[in-house]
Each structure stands twice: as structure tokens, then as C-alpha cells.
Design brief:
Elements: H1 10-19, H2 26-36, E1 41-44, H3 51-66, E2 80-83, H4 87-100, E3 108-111, H5 118-124, E4 130-133, H6 135-143, E5 154-157, H7 160-165, H8 169-177, E6 184-189, H9 194-203, E7 208-211, E8 222-228, H10 234-245, E9 250-253, H11 257-269, E10 274-277, H12 283-294, E11 300-303, H13 305-308, E12 318-321, H14 328-335, E13 345-351, H15 356-366, H16 398-402, E14 433-434, H17 437-444
Parallel strand pairs: 1-6, 1-7, 2-4, 2-5, 3-4, 5-6, 8-13, 9-11, 9-12, 10-11, 12-13
Antiparallel strand pairs: 8-14
Helix pairs in contact: 2-3, 3-4, 6-8, 14-15
The protein binds adenosine monophosphate (AMP).
Adenosine monophosphate binds near residues 21, 47, 49 and 52.
Amino acid sequence: MSFSTFGLSDEIIRAVTERGYTTPTPIQAQAIPAVMAGGDLLAGAQTGTGKTAGFTLPVLHRLSDKSIKGPSSGRPPIRALILVPTRELAAQVEESVRDYGKYLKLSSMMMIGGVNINPQITRLKSRVDILVATPGRLLDHVQQKTLSLSQIEILVLDEADRMLDMGFIRDIKKILALLPKQRQNLLFSATFSDEIRALADSLLNQPVLIEAARRNAIADKVTHVVHPVDRERKRELLGHLIKQHRWSQVLVFTRTKHGANKLAEFLTKSDIPALAIHGNKSQSARTQALAKFKTGDLQVLVATDIAARGIDISELPHVVNFELPNVPEDYVHRIGRTGRAGAEGDAVSLVCVDEAKLLTGIERLIKHQLPSQVVAGFEPDPRIKAEPITNGRGREPRSASAAPSRSPSKNQGGKKQFGQKPANGNVANSSRRRFSEPRRAAAGRGSSHAV
Ligand code: AMP
């Protein structure tokens, strides 16, 4: 199936294609036609399933379709309202709206608390078709009479369960009362508590019900990829990947505590909020960092394997192995942090020439070769020779001596691409491979850390 089967406008298809998406995710395949048809929707979908494009694309289509409607006198009204629980999600969703709608004549605005309200008031004086807002600040504007919601045609409640968890139910009810009765309602929620059901019952009119793949499909949802890169350029590559893919929440694994600190500092300096957790941090610092990460206030959590044990973060879309673990089994534990609860997950490993043996050890354990992609601009220098890896205390990692060598010089005709140029100058999704064996391999070995 491709995006062109939905009847979305050419402008939207162009933006989606440029973003590199070729196939709609299951939630998109169900949500897009349902929203295009104009009815209400109740969707069970977590972060990582592609839900944002699932509602953004058809909303953009419907609004641009009608935008040819005759000129109305006065300032055009706000036509779509997307309510989200957090500022981070607001930023992410509004960015998607802008990105997917870049070839359309629609304008969007993000409205969040914690920042000066005056620029928002100024912005509201010009055209806003799509408003992405958190409930509190939106009500501030309503109170100040700087915002009218009387002509909203489409309402999206994104991560509705999280909004209720955060105590927004009264705000939501106040907002609903300000909207016109005749409108399309889309409700996205990862879970369905009685409270969500009650909200859905009061809000939705004969909704289409859709749900993303559920728990039993977990392992199939993890995409593994290895990016060969020089050891000195890993930090830079990580920053590049986070920004390029707009990863909103990433758990990054390093081998040492010192490495975790240095990486978190580097990312923070590069405007990517990051904190490190490891054994040398106080419990309260660790708890705080984890809490910020869980609520989505912290974009990157850098952790050592030990510190990450016991972390239970559901719906984590991206896990990055900044360094491969010394013990192959730890790879399985690490990637168990992603793709949970039916969400899609990425397990990305940045691998330098020193780690070729570790990679072999992991591939043996999981009985699969990890697909390798060189990222354009980060091609490894073939002249750089492998150096021994220590675990920070001068010891060789266990698997390094157990696995055969895979240095670049011995691997010129081989499958791993140290020093090889990327085929198309980009990270191509299509060459990624999906498989589920890691989890089964762990379970089959009777691992107490089966994921
Ligand atoms: P979301 O669940 O909306 O937060 O999206 C999760 C991730 O999936 C984001 O990084 C999106 O850019 C990406 N994504 C969404 N739709 C697709 C698609 N059809 N193909 C590939 N990636 C996608």
C-alpha cells in the first residue's frame, strides 16, 4: 500500500515523499481513510505508531480541500484545533503540520504555556488555520478574549489518556463547550480507561474505531540498524540523527559513566536536552532525570547498562547504542526498551571499527546480521585502524576475544560497510530489515531479562 491510494492531494503526497515515507503504518492505513470520510474517530495508538501523520495528513487534506470556499469577510477563522497534553508534543505535532503542509496554503500555530503570552496574542491577529495547543494556555487566551474557537471544523484530542492523567479533564470540558456543535472529532489514546470511554461517549458521534497492533506483535515492531562511523564522530552523528529524524525521546546507551556524562554535556550544548544516569549519580538525580524523561520533558536520557536496569518506560520509540555493549546479551536487554506495548521501535547502533568484534558477537547471539547503513556525511575513514576496547577499567570486554576479527582491511568484500560510501547519499528506510528473533533468542536461552 502507498500513500497515493488515499486520495490525498498532490501537495501532501509530495511532502510525505520528501520526508522519506513510502508505506503507511497500520494506524495510518486505517485512520487516513476514516478521517477523509469526514466522520468521528476513536483510535487506540501510542507514540511510535505514526499516529501524528495519521491525523495530520487527512486534516490538512480536508482543510485545503475546502479552502477554495468563497472569500469570507474579515479574518479567516481557526478551523482545526489539536489539543495535546505537553509542550513537547505540541512542538512535535505543530512541526509535523508545517512539514506535511509545506506545499499548502495553510498556516499553523503552536500555543503552549511557560512562555510569554504576548507574541501568541500578536500571532493570533494574523491567519491561523490549525491551532496546536495545550489546554491551560488555550483557556488563558479564551479568558483574555484573544482567541475564538467558534468556527472549529475539526477537533483532535491527541494522547487523551495522558491529558486525563495530567488532570486536564475540566479544562477539556470547558474547551468543548466553546466549540461549535457541528464538527469532526478525532480522539487518540494509548489506553482506554473508564474515564476515556466516558469522554469518548460524550464527545464522539458514531465513531470509526481503530487500533494499532497490540502487544503480541511487539518484537516485529523493532527495526534494527547499524550506522558504521568513526569513533570520534559518533557524538556528532547522534546529534545529527536526533535532529534529522526529530526523535522526541531517545534512550542512549554508553559503555562508561564518564562517557555518559560527556555525551549528555555534548548534546545539551548542541541544543538537545540530555541528562545522564549512572551509578555515580545520586538517587534523587537519577529519579529526577527519569521522571523528566518519562513525562517527555527530557528529550535524551543517556544511561549505562546497569543504571538502565529496572527502567520501565513504555512506548519508547528510539534506543541508541552509542557504543555496543561489552556483553552481547546486553544488546537484547537494551533493545527491550523499545517497541513495547505494540509501538514501533528503532534500535540504532553507532559502530566504529573498534567494535567489529562486539558486533559479530551480538549477531551470533541473535542469529541475525544487523542491517548496516552508512549515513551520508559520516562515512568512516578506512585508514583508521581498530584499537582495543576497554570497559573503562582497562579490561578487554568478554566477547571481544571470543569472536573472529572483522577489521576493515579483512572485510573489503564483506557485508559490513566500514569505509563504504552510501548508495544514495541518505539513510534509506527501504534497506532496513525487520525481524523478531532477538526477543525469541533471549527467551529461548531462558534469559531472566527476556524482553
Ligand atoms: P508518531 O507515532 O506520530 O510519533 O510517529 C513516530 C515516528 O514514525 C516519527 O518519527 C515519524 O516521523 C515516523 N513515521 C510516521 N509515519 C511513517 C511512515 N509511514 N513511514 C516511516 N516513518 C514514519
